[in-house]
Amino acid sequence: MTAKRDDYDSKAYNPEFERHFLSPKYWGTWLGVILFLPLALMPLSAQKWLAKTIAKKLSKSHKGPAHRARVNFELCFPRKTFQEREALIEKTLYTAAMFFFRFGLLSLRSPQWLQSRCQIRGLDVLRQHIDNNENVILMVPHSWAIDVPAILLASMGMPVSAMAKKQKNDVADWLMHKQRVQYGGRVYERSGGIKPFLKSIRDGYIGYYLPDQDHGPEHSVFVDFFATRKATLPGLGKIAKLSRSKVLPLFASMNTEDGTFDIEILPAFDLDKGEEQDARTCNEAIEYFVGDKPEQYMWVLQLLHSQEDGNNYYNLFKPRYNSDWKVQ
């Protein structure tokens, strides 16, 4: 895995810079990039102040990210008081803002800088599988720092292979891709199917699998997730079997006090007990990772959009948050 390799694959997603990226349509995007760079280079104390200000304001909103997090927290943590959940929304948005401000440093700084600011627990477990010439899939929940381990491992000579959906904004899509594969690795578009992804794992790339997006009831099984039920993708066991891989759960979090990253890798777990039990096993790993640091998880996503009873709680709960529950 440490030998120099050619990461090009004609079936992988390989966007190139195009002249139309400079058209007026994307001037706003480029302006955002220009403004984004000074934010990344600001002193940590200034980033903390700005992140706290933004999080405090956004957390009071009855719409958008705060609303989605509010619904998710009520369903997943019903034993927490309303005030506790509101405080957690602000803490989650603060963590998100801090990561957003420092995300650009992953490209602006050297790989040595990144490696010095990451603490990895369980790296020996991953290395042992690699040294034994075993294929590996990392099961990576949606934390704010989700991209960090892939970039870090590639900088250490262990490139990953992932599947992603193309962004609507071509410039943003190109920039994100350049950052993700700056030290090597491959990204495949979901629309191209799973076979190229499986082949890349068999070729020695570390698979990067995101288990927790809601892809609709037709592609999911409903299993327990904290105090509720979640539409969960059931196919990781099959993917592991087809790629002849070991599956290792991984979670990345950001220390908002000093701006460093913590990465935890767990030993491989078995996924051969049927779709529902395998899906539940994945959710149990998420519960373990998120339990004592919920602010690190992307609760602003519509994680619980699909429901067994057909309800859309993000719409259903709007009236109660706007009238019955006043946010102070």
TrEMBL record:
Membrane topology is: Single-pass membrane protein
Q: What is this enzyme's catalytic activity, as reactions? A: an alpha-Kdo-(2->4)-alpha-Kdo-(2->6)-(acyl)-lipid IVA + a fatty acyl-[ACP] = an alpha-Kdo-(2->4)-alpha-Kdo-(2->6)-lipid A + holo-[ACP]
Compartment annotation: Cell inner membrane
Q: Which GO terms describe its biological process?
A: Kdo2-lipid A biosynthetic process; lipopolysaccharide biosynthetic process
Q: Note the superkingdom of the native organism.
A: Bacteria
Write out the GO MF terms: acyltransferase activity, transferring groups other than amino-acyl groups
- Give the record's keywords alphabetically: Acyltransferase, Cell inner membrane, Cell membrane, Lipopolysaccharide biosynthesis, Membrane, Transferase, Transmembrane, Transmembrane helix
Q: Taking the first listed entry, what is the main subcellular location of this protein, grouped into a coarse class?
A: membrane
Per the Swiss-Prot or TrEMBL annotation, the motif HXXXXD motif is positioned at 142-147
Signal peptide annotation:
none
Q: Which InterPro entries match?
A: LipA_acyltrans, Lipid_A_MsbB
Family the UniProt entry places it in: Belongs to the LpxL/LpxM/LpxP family. LpxM subfamily.
Per its record, how is this protein called by name? Lipid A biosynthesis acyltransferase
Q: Which organism is it from?
A: Vibrio parahaemolyticus
Q: Identify the taxonomic lineage of the organism of origin.
A: Bacteria, Pseudomonadati, Pseudomonadota, Gammaproteobacteria, Vibrionales
